[in-house]
Write a structure and sequence with these properties.
By secondary structure, the protein is mainly alpha-helical. It has eight helices and no strands.
């Protein structure tokens, strides 16, 4: 009975997360600030609730990553360089936590595997910085630091996948790649050129990334009891 109740809770909260995400996306597509202000802060809160009801013993580090992602979501709702910087710091901390979690899943790796995992993300990082460097101005260093951090997240997720081709590693790798796409498009939209499609791409990839990372954390926990 307890298992059935738990499954029902997971289903209900998953449905709630989908509904909140759809409402937020409507706000993005039609540029309705009220919808965004109401539903964007709820995204990580519903995802956190989904994680807690899905686990008997929660990972405090992962909870922390969702909390900092929540702060990042809220701060980026506001205009201005200060809010952008604070939002950047919040997501930077979230990514560092994700890196720590994935590193804890990796046992050993050869130098060859590390190089294979590193090269594609370094190429993407340098290409993006080269594109944006002339318009970053005083934000050059913070953006570079953030870019390095999320590149490392991509590297360790690919390293995890190359070492253990499990369901959890696939979820984590896809989530990391989508997060990099989301943040890259956000940077291009803010510092290089704007496009009406960019905000939609940013949120779609972000939501998918966070959900896939959740699935990775849940799957890894259940298969490594």
């Amino acid at each position: 009975m307890a298992t059935t109740k738990n499954i029902n809770k997971v289903t209900i909260i998953t449905t709630l997360f989908v509904m909140v995400s759809l409402c937020d996306m409507v706000g993005v597509v039609f540029n309705i600030e009220l919808l965004r202000s109401v539903f964007k802060p709820m995204l990580m809160l519903t995802l956190l609730t989904l994680y807690v009801v899905s686990m008997q013993q929660v990972n405090g580090w992962y909870v922390g990553a969702l909390v900092f992602s929540f702060f990042g979501d809220v701060l980026l709702l506001f205009e201005g360089e200060l809010y952008f910087m604070l939002g950047l710091i919040s997501f930077l901390i979230a990514h560092i936590i994700y890196i720590k979690i994935v590193l804890g899943w990796i046992n050993t790796s050869s130098l060859k595997t590390i190089l294979i995992a590193t090269i594609p993300f370094l190429l993407v990082f340098f290409a993006l910085i080269n594109l944006l460097k002339n318009s970053l101005n005083e934000l050059f260093v913070p953006v570079v630091v953030y870019g390095i951090t999320i590149s490392v997240m991509g590297i360790v997720s690919l390293l995890f996948y190359l070492n253990r081709k499990s369901v959890a590693s696939k979820y984590m790798f896809m989530g990391a790649c989508l997060f990099i796409i989301s943040d890259s498009v956000l940077a291009i939209n803010k510092f290089y050129t704007t496009n009406n499609l960019f905000p939609i791409i940013i949120m779609l990839t972000y939501l998918a990334a966070q959900y896939l990372i959740l699935r990775a954390v849940l799957t890894h926990a259940k298969t490594n009891k």
